[in-house]
């Protein structure tokens, strides 16, 4: 049996490096938002993100070449759950798309994703996207010393199930720092009080993938793209968080604010 790897406890200086890398990744998603519109290909969006990371942020696109991945971002449209490879296929009115970006700055990783509407989405698409955001926030608000990852997962699935949606189980959040995917694994479902007990200095992503239909997934022959088996819509949001002495800190805050979405604040 493989021994479980210890979950890193980060110093204040290390969290500062994570915060800087996370802020750069979030800035990429701020930049790209205005270009997400009908008629634009995900390849064009990918190239813009690549150029911005390299030329403006002076950082390294973490995904390029990672286990052979060919692009800078993952662009997951409609029924694509995650790891969608940018292509010359053009976005059309009503699409929803998740853009997931990771950068390396001074040896530390920043990783975040957010959803975008292409033109005017359906009522179902809007409800799915907003519910998935609310599920992520519910999970983040559970983060504090002494809480467990089961508390986080349970909060996420409670929000998703309340709306009749399903939680993808095969893909999860992860520890992150000077390693892209580290311990712990952060499941987006669970039972209160179960799993790893959180301590100050832990840093990880919370990135629920929520389907409008069933939770079953299928990987395409390209070895990356994951879709809903029933071709129902899927949505995802992702933030990096650090466990603080009193709760949590979001390390990938949106530079342009929360917009129409609720602020991420500690539970009362």
What does this structure look like?
The termini are far apart. The protein is 25% helix and 24% strand. With 268 residues, it is an alpha+beta fold. Helix 1 (12-32) crosses helix 2 and helix 3 runs antiparallel to helix 4 (149-162). Strands 1, 2, 4 and 5 form a 4-stranded antiparallel sheet that branches. The chain has a 3-stranded antiparallel sheet with strand order 3-12-11, with no helix packed on it. It has a 3-stranded antiparallel sheet with strand order 6-10-13, with helices on one face. The mean pLDDT is 96.
List the helices and strands and how they pair.
Blueprint: H1 12-32, H2 42-56, E1 60-61, E2 73-77, E3 80-82, E4 96-105, E5 108-117, H3 123-140, H4 149-162, E6 166-167, E7 173-175, E8 182-186, E9 203-206, E10 209-211, E11 217-219, E12 226-228, E13 234-236, E14 239-243, E15 248-250
């Amino acid at each position: 049996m493989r021994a479980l790897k210890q979950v890193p406890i980060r110093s204040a200086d290390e969290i500062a490096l994570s915060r800087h890398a996370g802020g750069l990744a979030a800035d990429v998603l701020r930049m790209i938002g205005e270009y997400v519109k009908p008629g634009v290909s995900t390849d064009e969006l990918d190239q813009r993100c690549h150029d911005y990371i390299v030329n403006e942020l002076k950082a390294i696109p973490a995904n390029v070449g990672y286990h052979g991945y060919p692009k800078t971002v993952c662009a997951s449209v409609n029924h694509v759950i995650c790891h969608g490879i940018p292509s010359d296929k053009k976005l059309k009115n009503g699409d929803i798309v998740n853009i997931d970006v990771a950068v390396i700055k001074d040896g530390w990783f920043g990783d975040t994703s957010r959803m975008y509407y292409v033109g005017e989405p359906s009522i179902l698409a809007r409800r799915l996207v907003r519910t998935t955001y609310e599920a992520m926030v519910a999970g983040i608000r559970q983060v504090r010393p002494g809480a467990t990852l089961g508390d986080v997962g349970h909060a996420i699935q409670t929000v998703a199930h309340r709306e009749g949606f399903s939680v993808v189980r095969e893909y999860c959040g992860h520890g992150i720092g000077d390693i892209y995917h580290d311990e712990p694994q952060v499941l987006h479902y669970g039972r209160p009080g179960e799993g790893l007990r959180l301590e100050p200095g832990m840093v990880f992503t919370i990135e629920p993938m929520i389907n409008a239909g069933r939770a079953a997934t299928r990987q395409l022959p390209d070895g990356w793209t994951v879709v809903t088996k029933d071709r129902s819509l899927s949505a995802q949001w992702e933030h990096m968080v650090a466990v603080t002495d009193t709760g949590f800190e979001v390390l990938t805050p949106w530079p342009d604010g929360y917009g129409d979405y609720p602020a991420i604040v500690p539970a009362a």
